[in-house]
Amino acid sequence: MSPPPEGTSGPPSAGRFRPLPDRDGRTAGDEAGFLGLPARAPKPRPVGLTHVLDRGVPLANFEPLVASIARFADIWKFGWGTSYLDRDLGDKLAILARHQVLACPGGTLAEIAWLRGRIGDFLAWAEAMGFAAVEISNGATAMTATEKRRLIALAAGRFVVLSEVGSKDPRVTCSPADLARQARADLEAGARWIVLEGREHGNVGLYREDGSVREEVVEAVISASGPGPVVFEAPRKEQQVWLIRRLGRDVNLGNVAPADVLGLETLRLGLRADTLFLLSADPERPADA
């Protein structure tokens, strides 16, 4: 084996590296420190949120999974009605709270409670279990916009409210103007964030059937509400790339699979070819894909 270069004593240990300041003098967000990556806001972040969709992770895998990605995960949604059936829910909520990850049940569960005349029981159950947030939606039932906003106002007194906007039915195409109006009205009713519907496969609402982004929807909603309170469901890498290119690394992205959280962070930091322009001294954005 060749001797180490003069002035060193062998391979560097992790402890030798320290975060470097970026071009603005802030502490970089990279772990090893030698790349001088742009800083990401500490948690709880106001923007640059990563919203995770949990389809039913077993408790045995849950704590190590959350511990490994919690630095990059901000909101954890228990998809559909999984939280209602999960006997380990209390333990999971305690783990998320320890790691400063905001937990909420899926909006479909709230819709089903409303459909069965049990919305009060649903909110009481969510509070008793320890949820700090709930999602209110009307994309799966005939709930009117007026009724939805009443529920948002009702829930906002006890929870952080995420309002999902858009239909889950691929046969229903909402106009950009209508989605923008809904988003603005739901924020005024008390929602903290608007979640633009994309579902777990990214092929409805915000997206065309082939998964491509409906650019006109993005423009209409951010024109009405600004990008800060909007979470764009983006389960596919190409959708995440498009939104980061259009709105920057601090765009709020949702319905991210737990296994994809670390990969998404590399996109935000310019550690992949798709977003390498983010590290350029004078970034020239590539043409939108």
The gist of it:
This protein is 35% helix and 12% strand. It is of the alpha/beta class.
Looking at the overall shape, the CATH architecture is Alpha-Beta Barrel
Biggest β-sheet: count, sense, barrel? 8 strands, parallel
Radius of gyration: 21 Å
The count of helical stretches stands at 10
* CATH top level class name: Alpha Beta
Shape: globular
Mean pLDDT: 88
SSE class: alpha/beta
Distance between the termini: 47 Å
| Beta-strand proportion | 5-15%
- Stretches where pLDDT is under 50 for at least 5 consecutive residues are 1-28, 281-289
Would you mind describing this structure in some detail?
The chain is globular, with a radius of gyration of 21 Å. It has a single domain (42-274), classed as Aldolase class I (TIM Barrel), CATH 3.20.20. The termini are far apart. It has helices spanning 59-69, 82-85, 89-98, 107-115, 119-129, 145-156, 176-189, 215-225, 237-247, 261-268, and strands at 50-54, 75-78, 102-105, 133-136, 160-165, 193-196, 230-233, 252-256. The protein has 289 residues and is α/β, with parallel strands linked by helices. Strands 3-2-1-8-7-6-5-4 form an 8-stranded parallel β-sheet.
